Amino acid sequence: MSKPEKLLDKKGLRLDGRKLDELRPIKMEVGILANADGSAYLEQGRNKVLAAVYGPKEVHPKHLALPDRAILRCRYHMAPFSVEERKSPAPSRREIELSKVIRDALEPAVFLEYYPRTSIDIFIEILQADGGTRCAGITTAALALADAGIPMRDLVVACAAGKADGKLILDLMDLEDKYGEADVPLAMMPGINAVTLLQMDGSLTLEEFEKAIEMAMEGCRKIYEVQKEALKAKYVTVKEETEE
Ligand code: ADP
């Protein structure tokens, strides 16, 4: 998409009509892949993300196994049709980096010590990308881990804040990410108030940076509520099925 003249209109609204501190519409569902031990699907604005979790299971290759805990592996991948120009399906440097960043954001939540000598594998597939897919990937993967029944300290949830046309904004879409002044993705476990990912691209004053962190955390807390509802919804369905 070409560069828009402005990212904010005269009323201070964004290109998609959102207010500065407004999240994109978001919805989630768990347990949608029968073959995986856990799975989740998320839509956040135009982002569409699928996550599958396999494990805890025997590690292959075996020499990677750890005697005292499970290993957590993560693959973030953008489908070739996820962006306007076909993306090569081969893993890019960006995808390899994001796989590591996402793994590191999720690891503090998982009780890996419960499952020595096993692996827990997370696959994140971006079906449609529109900015903030690392955050959307983390939120979806945490739900898939919970759906797999893997014990966690809390769900991990992620959201970015940033700056466009001189104003701080929440939950950047692709055009804001590309043409804005800054992007601050943040992941946290809201239940125990622990941040597991904090990155920054672009430039902000210290005061703006602190405000952006606050905004991103507020966004995370809202998305956390949707995550919990998605998990509960699955168990309501299970209960209804057993009662039939
Ligand atoms: P994030 O998705 O976490 O914001 P980036 O800042 O690296 O990660 O990417 C921002 C956005 O740029 C992506 O969400 C996607 O919309 C777009 N993008 C990333 N890679 C490509 C690509 N190969 N081709 C076209 N657009 C891309």
Keywords:
alpha+beta; Ribosomal Protein S5, domain 2; single chain; 4 helices; globular; five-stranded mixed β-sheet; 244 residues; binds adenosine-5'-diphosphate
What portion of residues belong to β-strands? 25-35%
CA radius of gyration: 18 Å
* The CATH top-level class label: Alpha Beta
**How many domain units?**
1
Q: What would you call the structural class? A: alpha+beta
- Determine the CATH topology: Ribosomal Protein S5, domain 2
Mean pLDDT across residues: 97
CATH architecture: 2-Layer Sandwich
Small molecules (ligands, ions, cofactors) in the structure: adenosine-5'-diphosphate
Please bin the fraction of helical residues: 25-40%
The major sheet is characterized as: 5 strands, mixed
Structure notes:
With 244 residues, this protein is of the alpha+beta class. The chain has a single domain (26-243), classed as Ribosomal Protein S5, domain 2, CATH 3.30.230. The protein is built from four helices and ten strands; from the N terminus they run ββββαβαββαβββα. Residues 83, 85, 87, 94, 129-134, 174, 177 line the site of adenosine-5'-diphosphate.
Question: What would you say about this model in short?
Answer:
By secondary structure, this protein is of the alpha+beta class. It has a single domain, classed as 2-Layer Sandwich (Ribosomal Protein S5, domain 2), CATH 3.30.230.70. The chain is built from 4 helices and 10 strands, in the order E-E-E-E-H-E-H-E-E-H-E-E-E-H.
What topology does this entry show?
Elements (H helix, E strand, L loop, with lengths): L25 E5 L7 E7 L2 E12 L12 E8 L14 H14 L11 E11 L4 H15 L9 E8 L2 E4 L3 H6 L2 E8 L4 E5 L2 E2 L3 H38 L1
Parallel strand pairs: 4-5
Antiparallel strand pairs: 1-2, 2-3, 3-5, 6-7, 6-8, 8-9, 8-10
Helix pairs in contact: 1-2, 2-4
The protein binds adenosine-5'-diphosphate (ADP).
The site of adenosine-5'-diphosphate has 12 residues, from helix 2 and helix 3.
